[in-house]
Each structure stands twice: as C-alpha cells, then as structure tokens.
Amino acid sequence: MSSKNDNPDDEVLCFCSGVRRSKIRALYMQGMDIRGIADMTGALTGCGGCEWEIEYYLQELEQQGIKPHR
Ligand code: FES
C-alpha cells in the first residue's frame, strides 16, 4: 500500500471517451448507475475495456458510505 493518493480525480477511467474519475463520481452522486453514466458520458460505448474499472470504482464509493443525493 502506498500512502499517495491512489484515486486521483483527474485520472481517465475510460480512454475511449476520455471520462475522468471526478465525472463518474459526480454522476454517481446524482444517483446514476453505470448505465446512466454510460449514456451521459459515452463511457463504455467504445471498446468496453473500462467496465470493470468503473464498476469497481462505484462499488468503492458505496463501500466508503458515499451516498448519492437523490
Ligand atoms: S475505455 Fe471505456 S469504452 Fe473503451
């Protein structure tokens, strides 16, 4: 485990669409699921290679007790 920030907001999670972690979190906070996020951003609509990464990040937010504002 490193002590540096492993989840930088500006990290691109979907290279096909260029969507960054901060954008995915913002949409999650608005109550969107992975399909909604894909529709809004174009993430997952290219090669699909980012799917597990985005899903994992959403699970991580949930596990941290970060809840969407619904
Ligand atoms: S990296 Fe996200 S669809 Fe290709």
What's a quick, concise take on this entry?
It contains 3 helices and 2 strands.
Walk me through the structure.
The protein is mainly alpha-helical and 70 residues long. The protein has a single domain, classed as Orthogonal Bundle (Arc Repressor Mutant, subunit A). Helix content is 43%, strand content 7%. It has three helices and two strands, in the order ββααα. It has helices at residues 21-29, 34-41, 51-63; strands at 12-14, 19-20. A two-stranded antiparallel ribbon has the order 1-2. Helix 1 (21-29) packs across helix 3 (51-63). The radius of gyration is 12 Å and the shape is globular. The termini are far apart. The mean pLDDT is 92. FE2/S2 (inorganic) cluster (FES) is lined by residues 14-16, 43-50.
In terms of quaternary structure, what is this? Answer: single chain
Tally of individual helices: 3
* Rounded Rg: 12 Å
Please list the strands of the largest sheet in the order they lie side by side.
1-2
CATH architecture: Orthogonal Bundle
Shape: globular
From the N-terminal CA to the C-terminal CA, the straight-line distance is 34 Å
Ligands bound, unique: FE2/S2 (inorganic) cluster
User: What is the CATH class name?
Assistant: Mainly Alpha
What is the total number of structural domains? Answer: 1
